[in-house]
Amino acid sequence: MSQINTIKKYAIILEEFTKRVDRTLTSYDVVLLDELGISQKQLGRLLDELSSEFDNIITLVGKKRKTYKLIQPIDLFVQTMENSQEIGWFFNMATEADPLIFKELENYTNKNKNIYQFKNSPFEDITSLESKQVFKRVKSAVENHEYRDIKFSYEQEWQRNLRCLKLVFMDNNWYVAFVDEKDALKFGRISFIQEVSYSKNRTAFQIYPLQKQMDFLENSMQNSMTLYDTEQKTATLKAKKEIARYFQKGMKKFLSSQEFGKELKNGDIVFTVDYTQELEILPLVQRWLPGIEILSPDSLKTAYKEKLKKALL
Length: 313
Prior knowledge:
Elements: H1 3-19, E1 24-26, H2 30-36, H3 40-53, E2 57-60, E3 67-70, H4 76-81, H5 88-96, H6 101-108, H7 129-144, E4 147-152, E5 159-170, E6 173-179, E7 185-189, E8 193-198, H8 211-219, E9 233-239, E10 259-263, E11 269-275, H9 282-287, E12 292-296, H10 298-311
Antiparallel strand pairs: 1-3, 2-3, 4-5, 4-8, 5-6, 6-7, 9-11, 9-12, 10-11
């Protein structure tokens, strides 16, 4: 059973749930077994996967056969994308089978088939055979806590004995978060990796001594420019009224440290953002020019003015 066909099977199962008056199914369902062309054991596994991933499907207690009930309709794409913890199984299928899996989801969502369109895919970095092999090797290192030597295209020397902690999708690219021999946490873009090999140190590394780095990944990292073990500064910014609606309290944050400050009488919004280096937040400022103004600190204003001057030469 190919991975790409698994998505089709999920969609068929969800559709079958909605056809039943009581919205229940078992792995012995003759209609599904015939339509999917799979065994009772395979159908049971698919039902278990859907039930474990989505709260909308529950297992009924006290039934002679294991019975699954759909308590709320599921839009396969939306439900998965709304929960970053659940999306991992799509990533696995895409990287290990077909990176065009999101195109499949356009056709197999429970709602109108014309709702979704994808101009970009989180798998575009890993479509080539070489990139897939690199991705799998790094993923194996993360899973097994193994040391790796990695050669990046922008460096002449190999980086040795790296402890790969996580695969991170951010800034529309895949990165590997790793700890080097000096215990510094860094990010390497997957598409910039030329080679990955086993290190001379073939023992598995322990996660416990790296808890500080793991905490940083979970709680402090905003983007690929966030520096580890660097003191944070706070910038105060002002969004002018023409774009203020995007920075109102309760709106989706552009950076995780972004905090609403106040709305001025003229409609402008004042907000703050923490940063470890200028490159971490200046792209946000540049994206909204001339609608955003840097209020403080003066060092950030000066640095940005210099960058603008150089860009206009």
